[in-house]
Amino acid sequence: MKLKKYLIVSIIFLSVSTQEVFAEKKYNTSELVNIAGMQRMLSQKIAKAYFFYGQGVRPDKTRKQLLDSIVLFDKNYNILLSNNNDGNITDMLVFIKMSKDELLPLAKESFSKDNGSLMLDYSETLLEASNDIVKRIEDTTKARKDKIVNLAGRQRMLTQRIAKFYIAYQSEFKDVNTINQLRQSMKEFEEAHVFLAKNTQNSSQISTELNKVAKLWNIVSKFYNDVERGGLPVIVLSSTDKIMTSMNHVTKLYVELGKQ
Length: 260
Hints:
Helix content: over 70%
Shape: globular
Number of strands: 0
Order of helices and strands: HHHHHHHHH
Number of domains: 1
Mean pLDDT: 92
């Protein structure tokens, strides 16, 4: 009941206030790539938090993640809507809203395999649609700085995707596809990290943060890969979130670097 009340109050507040607030500010392309990229991450984080909460892993923390992610998704949605004049992006935003509104009731319900299957489907749909918007925004300039923001921002999504598939496997989705998706996400994360680390335009702050990510990744990636053994949900939850936080910082630093 508390979950339902929280969501209703949050959504009503956002629908009344956020469009007014964010319609007043205009964002540059790099900022919009960052915000649209964050939607990709949230599509995975919502599903991840649903599965972790459903399995009783750090319930207070994962329930808050679930609720806060939905609120932030709506906030970012309104920013993108009020800063857009592309008909194709508008159509995709309408589709995203429809999909998110269908996902919302699931967030209020107790975990079940059927609900979990729907949550996985919706998270994949929202990811694909959000990624399409990122690409469309990036294509308006084709600037290198926006491509770097996109790539760094995508790393945030991959951390949550890894955790999503890890906990989904522990939640009755013990199939080859779940394992393959997790390991493919790990491969993509590692390849992108190598590319970002070699970027000659990295500031000292960015390099320091990327080195921190690399050190943590070298330790915990073995746990992610050992998904079939399982038994480490708290470590997976905390470590992927730490890496996500660092990559969020890096992405924002790239946005600022592009303004110089």
